[in-house]
Amino acid sequence: MPIPPIIVMAARAGWHGQWTLLMGGLGPSDGEGNYQRPVSDHLQAVLPEQPPLIERPGERLPRLIVGRSCPWAHRTWLVHRLRGLEDSLKLLIATADHKAGRWRLEPAWLDNSSLLELYRHCGAPPSYRATVPVLVDPEGPRILGNESAQLVELLNRWPASQEAPDLAPPALTESILSWQTLLQPALNDGVYRCGFARNQAAYDRAETALTHALDQVEQHLSQRGPWLCGEHLSLADVCLFPTLIRWESVYSPLFGCNRPLWLYPSIWDWRRRFFALPGVADSCDAEAWRRDYFGALFPLNPGGIVPAGPDLSTLVNSPMPQ
Fold it and tell me: How far apart are CA 113 and CA 165, in angstroms?
């Protein structure tokens, strides 16, 4: 028996009210429905103090704590891998606890089983969100930094071997800043502006800006590649990669970023080339991305169904569709 239209309308109105309430906590917006990322308190990132890293045993080395699904943490993970910092900075991968809404540490570190406990153990004020990435020195213990943009720059100065690449040489400072000014709001944050838009007009604005940024990246790479700053791999590439490698797994099916990347042959080739760099593939886990995004963002996926997705190595290394 068909459900009476009035019941359907009432159910839709009720659900929309609840959805609006939930979205307020997940993705705050302005008066026009545009997503506005909350401003978080963070510490000024600094290099560790005494004793020198070279004198420390492994268990007393600082930890870079990341989460597999977080694109902001992925940036720092990539710098850690590309510069080969394993001997002076240990990596610790936190696990997303969807029910508790926090990051777990398994096994526990410094007798803390969650990131929230670790933040408090380090004396962080209650206003600091216990999230990744975070750089912690067990001497103290002390938080050395918890903001990704600062941390990638800090890790580029972190003590490393002579063979470690400089991802932000002085000659590229202006170019890197120019790319960050474009990519951060329109692309890296732009996918969230699409996914967390409250209405059609807000989504259209975000999607238009996103497409324009992709067009600019494509044009530049086709003329001045192979990397965003020309011949030199830089932090600009590092900060863009986490967004574009998640495209087909998360941002297209869940956030409505449906413009296929195969429309951009230079971007497609750039992503394939970056994925092939040593250590990069090990930092990419599409199954964890889908599990955390689709499992945690209830207002966007109330059924909780985690869809199947492409195998990254096959996707990235496959020839571009004609």
Answer: 34
**Which CATH number does the domain housing residue 134 bear?**
3.40.30.10
Q: Place 320 in a pLDDT band, splitting at 50, 70 and 90.
A: confident
| Domain match, 313 and 174 both | yes
Query: Residue 170: what pLDDT?
Result: 97
Same domain, 200 and 151: no
Q: Supply the range of the domain harboring residue 127.
A: 53-156
3-state secondary structure the chain: CCCCHHHHHHHHHHHHHHHHHHHHHHCCECCCCCECCCCCCCCCCCCCCCCCHHHCCHHHCCEEEEECCCHHHHHHHHHHHHCCCCCCCEEEEEEEECCCCEEEEEEEECCEEEHHHHHHHCCCCCCCCCCCCEEEECCCCEEEECCHHHHHHHHHCCCCCCCCCCCCCHHHHHHHHHHHHHHHHHHHCHHHHHHCCCCHHHHHHHHHHHHHHHHHHHHHHHHHCCECEECECCHHHHHHHHHHHCHHHHHHHHHCCCCCHHHCHHHHHHHHHHHCCCCCHHHCCHHHHHHHHHHHCHHHCCCCCCCCCCCHHHHHHCCCCC
Same domain flag for 152 and 185: no
Kindly report whether the global pTM for this prediction surpasses the value 0.85: yes
